[in-house]
Fold this sequence. Notes:
The structure holds 2 protein chains of 2 kinds. Chain A has helices at 8-19, 35-48, 67-78, 83-96, 108-112, 116-125, 142-151, 165-174, 196-211, 225-234, 243-251, 256-274, and strands at residues 23-29, 52-56, 102-105, 130-132, 154-156, 158-159, 179-182, 216-219, 238-241. Chain A is an alpha/beta fold. In chain A, helix 10 (225-234) runs parallel beside helix 12 and helix 11 (243-251) runs antiparallel to helix 12 (256-274). At the A-B interface, helix 3, helix 5, helix 7, strand 6 and helix 8 of A face strand 2, helix 8, strand 11 and strand 12 of B.
Amino acid sequence: MPETERNKVSMLFEKLSKKGEKALICYVVGCYPDIETSKEIVSTLIDSGADIIEIGIPFSDPMADGPIIQAASLKALARGITPSTCFRFVNEMKKKYSNTPFLFMTYSNIVFSNNLRNFLTAAKKNQVDGFIIPDLNIEESQEYVGIARQLGLATIFLSAPNTAKKRLVEIASISSGFVYMVSIFGTTGSRSKFEKYTFDAVSKTKEITNRHKIPLAVGFGISNPKDGRNMIKSGADGIIVGSSLLKLILENENDKEKMLFYLGSFIKELKGVCR
Amino acid sequence: MKQSNIGKFGIFGGRHVPETLIPALDELDYNYQKLKKNKQFQKELTYLLQNYAGRPTPLYFAKNLTKYLKGPKIFLKREDLLHSGAHKINNTIGQGLLAYKMGKKRIIAETGAGQHGVATAMASAIFGLETVIYMGAKDVGRQQSNVFRMNLLNAKVHPVTSGSMTLKDSVNEALRDWITNVETTHYLIGTVMGPHPFPTMVRDFQSIIGREIKEQITQETGSLPDSIIACIGGGSNAIGTFFPFINDNKVRLYGVEAGGKGVNSKHHAATLSRGRIGILHGMKSYFLQDEYGQIKEAHSISAGLDYPGVGPEHAYLRDNKRVSYSVVTDDEAIRAYLLLSKLEGIIPALESSHAIAYLVKNSKKFSEDNIVVVTISGRGDKDLQIVKERLEETGSFKESNKTGVEKKAISDA
Lengths: 275, 413
């Protein structure tokens, strides 16, 4: 693996793999419901077993997201959360959790419309470890990948259940950190049940990521340990949860103690199937 | 990985979508390229455009407006006479036929005021396709008659309650539906926006407007027009009008955006004049957005121009200066609406009124022997209520609204 790709995310997967563990990746909307509570939430997630944190920088038009993340994003925007707030947030969190990789997940316009290089440089300066951009396709990524490589940021690209093998090869070879497989035809948010096509796609994708020596994480709609276990059984090196965490946050917005307790026990259960 | 040229207009356009949609876009592109050259497909399309939609549409010499402005000779391209009352149907029949040939069972579409929704529902009816129209909850409230019209045409209208509850959110919601049902469904985008191949494909379906203009004006006057004017929201009637003239460098092309309450107010839809380059709805183009890249709401009295983005080919034609883009306000558009109704007996859509308003405002720029073509993209019956309310607000309608009879004609405000 080239030196520039040895970012914190890759190193974490190596460490886990030596222990025979899978990664638990947690998504939260940045600074939601407010900066202080969000800090406590992220601390709880990490203390309970989360390996990687994804911070969603809220965007006005989140087309890959279901109703739960949409609602939280719009509320965060209404409360004045900007990309800079999210940069500072990561910077603060890293003081305590310097070994935990932090990724930004956001849409192209946030990253590209304000000078790409400046944006990525600012992210790096604030100790962000990489980016997930769900509406960025490999064909449009040359400049972004170039700058991110220079800065040592992980470039995590997404694949879908219907992505052709040839394209999976391109996605695997341009990604660093891991490949993010979207588990279902649909937006973020929980499903009552996964169908066979999801597990088939995980196995198919895993063959290719294996060949390229890059980990595979699966997300969208994972809402319980059983889902997570099934993804891992099919070949996932990591599982990603987001909407089900946000659901707990939204449902318990008025009782922080309860919120953190539920989040903690949920993460412990999920991490349980990763070991 | 090389930067791709797929669907690029200079630096604009491309594909910027969740990965799930890539196979669908590839499939669509492949089938479209294939069917475009297929004689049977073209024959069926032509039959429907002629016998269902009512093509060709006339090119009418607007004698009274010409006389009134003491300016150039003005010809109106009458897309308002099409079935459904607007140019939208050129595209919906084309994409509907394509979706049918591809074996798709279900059509989804976004709509603002409902014009594209209605035109989509009509095309779906022809081919017997299940149809769901995404429409902002605010727009559903404002446009009850179009909702009913779509229901009559056997389309389901799904009110969108996310975000600002207007057109841009309907596009988001339609994209989310497409991501979920990508294998059975075709997303029938209503304008020259979205990921490749939509901007090119919709342009091709709408270019019949410009091709007819070329033939008709040459027959009528023996030469090409000096100037052509069209209004721009997403930009489909404009690109359809302009495209066949793009290489005729002597023909000047004017695109007119919605200036709303003025480009210095917060309420306008002047994307090309006041927007910034960005990425949304699958394409790189100009968008109204704040300093952080959050997309702003657009405003125009004309619902069809009320979109914070613009088709990527217009962004390209703006930057290479082949087309001049400018802005007309709500008030100027209403005056043009009244003027054309009074002088020519043609009630233009508020969208098209922007194009007329540009000509009225700038008539001195054109010399008397100039030939100018203006595309009337749709008819204005759908806007009667909005215009009436506006006139009542401003007081220019006091006299005639009491009984509605025997009053002098409305002054052109």
